[in-house]
Amino acid sequence: MSKRNGTKKTVKPTNEKWRRLQRFLQSEDFAKTCGVFFLLFSLFLLFSMVSFFLKGGNTPNWCGGVGFWFARVLIESTFGIGALGFCFLSFLYGLRLLKREPLPFWKTIVSTFFWMTWLSCTVAYVDHLAKNVEMESLAGSVGYYVARWLYGAIKIGLPVILVFLAAAYLFLVHHVRMPSIKLPHTVEKKEPLPAAPLKVQTTTEPPVSKTNDCAVKGKTSLVAASSVSPVDVAVPPQASPAANGEPTPAQSAASAPSFDIDDEFSRINKRAQGKQEPSFTIIDKQEPALPAEHSAATEPVDEQPAKARHYGIDELYDPKLDLPHYEMPKTDILVDWERNNVKVTNEEMLVNKDKIVETLGNYGIGITNITASPGPTVTLYEVIPAPGIRISKIKSLEDDIALSLSALGIRIIAPIPGRGTVGIEVPNAKPQVVSMKTMLESTQFADNTKFELPIAFGKTIGGEPFVTDLAKMPHLLMAGATGTGKSVGLNAVITSLLYKKHPCELKFVMVDPKKVELSLYNRIERQYLAKLPDQDDGSETESIITDVKRVVRTLNSLCIEMDNRYDLLKRAGVRKIKEYNEKIIHRQLVVNENDPKAHHFMPYIVLVIDEFADLIMTAGKEVETPICRLAQLARAVGIHLIIATQRPTTNIITGTIKANFPARIAFRVTSAIDSRTILDTGGAQQLIGRGDMLISLSGSDILRCQCALVETEEIEQLANYVGNQEGFSDDKMFTLPEYLDENDAPNKDFDPKAKDEFFNDAARLVVTSQFGSTSLLQRKLQLGYNRAGRIIDQLEAAGIVGPYNGSKARDVLIKDEMELEERLQSL
């Protein structure tokens, strides 16, 4: 035991020292120490190499023998004069250890080694032409051997290769652009010099301050006064004029605002009494758009002839070869509505800021700082209240602030989640229009490869494009009053998907009870629309569903399609459609296009319902039940729902619908009750309409956004561009499975023994009124719903009324009472 205890006592201190050493090596102090070392080492290498070059490689060196050795090894054995890049790399790594990264680290390293090699090769080539022995050390071993090998291979083409590599690297990596070349005949118009800063001066008898009875004598300059800061007079920062252009109207207004002299002296006296005004900052987060020629279509156009349908076992499966010549639409067919936009001026934001501060000050609420973030429709003023101010007190002043600003739609966010500020959203005097073309050309949408079904909704308050993924929502509920932009929002969603997904990857099922909103998309039937079950009989039924009876059948067909897809996912051993399609593409599953039950590539299916309220009122549970089933289960198999309604009431947007649609969009509504029905919170009643909307994704924070504008003419041009291309043939179109309900089954023979005692009375009532419905029998005969329904079925079996006709009454097959009496006697 003593030996064991002795060994433990000897081993434990060693382990403790090792842990201390590990903690020190992983500590921040050690990293900072190494960072300072590399900074000093970079200076040591710099002086050593400079001394080596100046003295021609002879001793002594400025940094002694060690410096001479480092310089000789790095210069002669590597990149010659390009070895100076090692000094820069050492300095950059030292800053990285000190948590200072002025440049992208890995990109800078690659660029540095490229230019070190290029400079070494260039010096070696010049040395070869000049035949100067003294320049051999400047080239280094790397440059000497690389240049020698290249010269032996291409000889006189070596300088061309060096210039081409340098230019290509500058253009592709460093994004250097050629300067614009102006034609000789163009004459530049000389612009007038910018006006001098405005100076407001008083006369020999200045006005008396409102808060102080002391008069200020003598001439006083408000701008030059030493006791007044720029914050006191609230002068906006002057934008520097453009080099070759006139100042914009916003810059002109911001450069020379008008001030009230009495108000300025009032602020000076407040400052003297210790009542300092809150600081005011304007934040502009406008996202620059890509060039106009940049297309939102990410897939390159395949101009080669179509490949064969049979592949080798080592080739990937390509589902797009069903339409090999299809070209994704270009943004040129859309209109840029943002060309005539007028940006909010600094003067307008300063006026709103002063009114907000004054209104809050009247109620004893102090403000320490205000930040303004201008957006396309509204400007967000972030307020930091003084210590001791209750947030609920600011929230209760929503109507008072709206009255002082004389604006519609003031919305207060108290507080802004994660910001520690109170937000006040004030509509701009001249709202801007967000163009769908700008959204599709933005980097957030055009270069996005992470989203399966990307949707570009519009721009946020900060002016940033808002792009999200429908596959992660996974379903979307849109609601708002009539004329607030709901239909435009639907068109924005559909347009985004048409610009991003190939027809082989996406299918739409569109329901339009109003018959006019989605009719423009009939042109893309053979490319993007799914073939419905009732189109298999060769009828001329349109793919846009407008009849309620067809809606019920289509929804149940989608449920059958969902079940079939789950069976395929189960057989493939995967959980999501993305994993299943990856197995199809990598040929891990056997594809048989002739067998509908065999494995095949699954396109995403998006169900779009324009007016959900009309379906609920006419069909009720027959529509709500399959929709809820799809919303609960269809996400994993790539079926997503988009439902829009203009009646956000509790009998339309029920609790079951809300539970299955976590992603919701609210346009302007008439009351706070409707806003709570959509978003479970108020705020939508404060919107200003015309595309202004609130977005709630999966129960997260609510975001205010301005919807992108897509006019009817743009939709027509887009539909014509897609529809004029080659489409799927009848046997290649994506077809939903067939569904037959009990109403479609043939009627059984009439059973006289099961005839209800009210059968004859019901038959006479139906024939007399020429109206066959269950509700009529309930009212006139005072029957329950189930008994009246059974009597209607018996009347149908007897040939008195026709089959089920959806929301309409059944057709009465017997036209007079004499014929009815004959039929009753025969029964």
Brief sketch in words of this structure:
The chain has 827 residues and is an alpha/beta fold. It is elongated, with a radius of gyration of 38 Å.
Tally of alpha and pi helices: 28
Per DSSP E runs of 2 or more residues, the count of β-strands stands at: 14
Low-confidence stretches: 1-12, 180-266, 268-275, 287-312, 742-747
Hey, roughly how much beta strand do the residues contain? Answer: 5-15%
Helical residues, percent: 40-55%
List the helices and strands and how they pair.
Elements: H1 2-25, H2 28-54, H3 64-79, H4 84-97, H5 105-130, H6 136-154, H7 158-172, H8 230-233, H9 249-255, H10 261-272, E1 279-282, H11 346-362, E2 367-374, E3 378-385, H12 391-395, H13 398-405, E4 411-413, E5 422-427, H14 436-441, H15 443-446, E6 454-460, E7 465-469, E8 476-479, H16 486-500, E9 506-511, H17 525-528, H18 548-572, H19 577-585, E10 604-609, H20 612-618, H21 621-633, E11 639-645, H22 655-660, E12 663-666, H23 672-679, E13 692-696, E14 702-707, H24 712-723, H25 759-769, H26 774-781, H27 785-797, H28 817-826
Parallel strand pairs: 1-2, 8-11, 8-12, 9-10, 10-11
Antiparallel strand pairs: 2-3, 3-5, 4-5, 6-7, 6-14, 12-13, 13-14
Helix pairs in contact: 2-3, 2-4, 3-6, 4-5, 5-6, 5-7, 11-13, 18-21, 25-26, 26-27
